[in-house]
Amino acid sequence: MAYAEDDLLPLSALQHLAFCERQCALIYLEDAWVENRLTMEGRQLHERTHAADVEVRGDLRIVRGLRLQSLRLGVSGQADVVEFHRCTAANGAEPAGVELPEVDGRWQPYPVEYKRGRPKADPCDEVQLCAQAMCLEEMLGAALAEGALYYGQPHRRHKVQFLDYLREATDRLAFRLHEMVASGVTPPAAYEKKCKSCSMLDVCLPESAGAGRSVQRYFTKALTDALGEVSDTDETDA
To answer: What residue spans define the domains of the chain?
Structure first.
């Protein structure tokens, strides 16, 4: 199956979906977004890395802000960094990698995603990076075995191998993302330990929202209550 370009969804949504389906739905179905210190620092980090440019260091070419898409996954987005390493021939064989426009030689793509914090216990960051790799494979006709996540807290790279289980998980999440968006249904809230660090906590209300309650109904009730308080005040003043 291949999606039309008009049906492509944000690649970054896969990371949100892998972390929490409800968080993903609140952001992409109900246009709710709450920023805290962690998300602000992450956004600023990505804004710096998404400033599109190319840097050349000998046999290494570094491309920032490269636009990506996969019609098979149905996603599009922007890579923080894609490194292109010059390939050399071994034993007279044709070198691996891909050709780049107006650049001699063949080059192996290597995606690098920047994260502000520490490595996570769940695979949501790995899924996002794998989706970038699968986009590059589709766009360039290349085979990518590995990429890296750079975390700001330990200030070092965490290598990620694009093994079958991770590719299959990325496929399933991409399908689920399109399924959820098509349904327009926000999953019910369910409190978990990870909710404490989520910027959407006060909107999601996982401890009190109850099954089936949406953020839209929460905002509607809050607005109704506020208008009711204004009305009561007016009557009292009269």
So the answer is: 5-187
Tokens of 98: 């891909």
Model pTM score:
0.79
- Rounded to whole angstroms, how far apart are CA atoms 129 and 114? 10
Q: How far is CA 167 from the centre of its chain?
A: 15
Residue environment code for 91-113, b if the CB has 16+ CB neighbours within 10 A, otherwise e: eeeeeebbebeeeeebbbbbbbb
Query: Hey, what CATH topology would domain 5-187 get?
Result: Lambda Exonuclease; Chain A (3.90.320)
Over the stretch 44-68, which tens digit does the pLDDT of each residue have? Answer: 545 555 555 889 999 999 999 999 9
Tokens of 148: 């890296």
CB atoms within 10 A of CB 142: 17
Show Cβ contacts of residue 100 under 8 Å, excluding neighbours closer than 6 positions.
61, 84, 107
Q: Which two tokens stand for residue 142?
A: 């290349």
Q: What does the alpha-carbon distance between residue 99 and residue 105 come to, in Å, rounded to a whole number? A: 7
Of the candidates 64, 54, 58, the one whose C-alpha atom is nearest the C-alpha of residue 101 is 54
